[in-house]
Amino acid sequence: MTVQLDGLGVTPNDVLRVARGGETVVLTSEARERIHAARRIVERLADERPTYGISTGFGALATVSIPAARRADLQKSLVRSHAAGLGDPVEEEVVRAMMFLRTRTLALGHSGARALVADGLVSLLNARISPLVREYGSLGASGDLAPLAHVALALMGEGEVVHAGRARQAAAALGDAGLEPIELAEKEGLALTNGTDGILGMLCLSLHDSAQLLRQADMTAALTTEGLLATDAAFAHELQALRPHPGQAKSASNLRALLAGSPIVASHSTDDPRVQDAYSIRCTPAVHGAARDTLGHVESVVERELEAAIDNPMVLPDGRVESCGNFHGAPLGFAADFLAIALAEIGAIAERRMDRLLDVSRNHGLDPFLADEPGVDSGLMIGHYTAAAIASENKRLAAPASIDSLPTSAMQEDHVSMAWSAARKLRRVVDNVRRILAVEYVIAARAVELRQPLEPAPGTGSLVRLLRQHVGGPGPDRYLSPELRSAEELLRSSEPDRTLEELGLELD
Fold first, then answer.
1. How high is the pLDDT of residue 60?
2. Mind listing the pLDDT tens digit for each residue in 38-68?
3. What is the mean pLDDT of residues 180-209?
4. Is the pLDDT at 157 greater than 80, yes or no?
5. Which of 8, 95, 329, 401 is deepest in the core (most CB within 10 A)?
6. Cα–Cα distance for residue pair 187/192, rounded to 1 Å
7. pTM for the full model?
8. Is the predicted pLDDT of residue 17 greater than 70, yes or no?
9. Residue 279 annotated in active site
10. Can you give the pLDDT at residue 146?
11. Are 102 and 117 in contact (CB under 8 A)?
């Protein structure tokens, strides 16, 4: 499979295909024409008057004029000095997304770099060479300066890369792949580093993962509804339509589909002394739905950003090269923080649901902690502890990063977005919510099985059978951590979706 990169029309799925799927990237001829046109403008201006990023210094040094003989050195110095990241290496899928998206901006023809530079990024992608980017260094202000500088450094044949699963010197990896280092010309160091591509790449990846998690949250909630002998009456279309939030309608529809034909639910449809279920069951569509609507807002932000040219200065078709603030990460930082808040609540309500399943005073006839021999066995008690610890961490991670700002560059960059930090912690929240849902999956499936001879619905029953291919059923205590991790890996895959689709159930 090949992704045709024109600069225009890039989708989050394209980012996913390149970043995770490793698909080949091809730069279109139309993109090349735009790149060439912008480059001609830069080369003309380099000889005419002082222009930021072309014939001057950077940031607070923008008033320093650079003679023509030193401008190539200026670009190399920029990249080397800005490749100042520290901390653990960033995930390879994030680096690949960042390279692909930086090439996307270059292809729009507003950056003024040569096609040689865009081709260099594409070559790294297609050779599966990923520059080694460190965790810390971006303030999300003049874009992801340090992360992108590590990418640019690799193009120059310097620094470190990850190739064939191990860290190597860039020069050696490029040589083995038959690639030549690039000698940067005017504007190109700046064009490679002045973008929000790391932030945007992480948001694109998180969109896919979050949509999957929200479907899975409905799955585990449906299992818990059966395990608690709760009712699906509150999920009725007529009731949900009275509060017409689209996400709430989708979540309620998923729950109705998953619970349709459930003998467990039917078993207590009459003569049940309970008037209503707890909020963590009854309000599931409202909470899950609000998170869905938040995800929809973030999708709209990402779609607009994928149409945007992010650089400074910008090369305009009429020949002007003008400074702007398009590199500021605020739109993406706000979106990442908002989604982290919403997902943290998905984990929080799931933790409350599983707690009810384990509490003998509230689980309506099941043994304490679903233990095989209570007292001798602790059952799934400590699995809930693990979920509670993760839910608590999510509360801290949900604190917005984008409300912070530390001025830098001698007060030239006096307001920064911290959007990189927002996107980094969003990825942590996504992983954490998956772990919480994995614990609920294990607990709820055991509770449903302990209701035998009552049977679950076809939808929920298929999810229990899928889990049992990876995790054992009720019984005496055993080493629990591997089972929870197996459930986590199952949720990382598309198997739950495929299992339901085989029954004709395709969740929204």
1. 62
2. 999 998 887 666 777 677 766 667 677 777 7
3. 96
4. yes
5. 329
6. 9
7. 0.95
8. yes
9. no
10. 96
11. no
In 3-state terms the chain splits into helix, strand, coil percentages (rounded to 5) of 55, 5, 35
402-411, 416-425, 436-445: the lowest-pLDDT one: 402-411
Same domain, 276 and 367: yes
**Active-site annotation holder among 52, 385, 441, 479:** 52
Beta bridge mates, 129: 163
What's the residue count for the chain? Answer: 508
What per-residue confidence (pLDDT) applies to 56? 73
Q: Is the Cα torsion angle 285, 12, 439, 422 positive or negative in sign?
A: negative
- What distance lies between CA 203 and its chain's CA centroid? 5
Helices (H) and strands (E) in the chain, counts: 20, 9
- Which structure tokens are listed for 404? 């912070």
- Give the Cα separation of 235 and 50 in Å (integer): 65
Domain shared by 161 and 207, yes or no: no
According to DSSP, residue 8 is labeled S
What values do phi and psi take at 135, rounded to 5?
Answer: -60, -45
End-to-end CA distance of the chain: 27
Q: Which position has the token pair 């960042």?
A: 98
**Same domain for 181 and 231:** no
Closest CA to 97 of 207, 17, 208, 181: 17
Residues 132-155 have a mean pLDDT of: 95
Domain that holds residue 91: 2-195
On whether residue 324 sits in a domain, the answer given is: no
User: Nearest-CA neighbor of 139 among 414, 399, 427, 421?
Assistant: 421
Q: Domains in the chain: how many in total?
A: 2
Interval 164-187 mean pLDDT: 96
Question: Do 236 and 277 lie in a common domain?
Answer: yes
Geometric angle at alpha carbon 374, from 371 and 376, rounded to 5°: 105
Tokens 């009459």 appear where?
Answer: 270
> Tens of pLDDT along 318-340?
999 888 999 999 999 999 999 99
Structure tokens at 75: 């670009």
Give CA separation, 344 vs 273, 291, 354, 448, in Å: 33, 9, 16, 26
Alpha helices in 46-114 (DSSP H): 71-82, 92-107
Examine the domain organization and report whether 168 and 214 are in the same domain: no
Q: Is residue 321 part of a domain?
A: no
CATH code, domain with 359: 1.20.200.10
End residue of a domain, out of 127, 162, 195: 195
Q: Which residues contact 403 (CB under 8 A, 6 or more apart)?
A: none
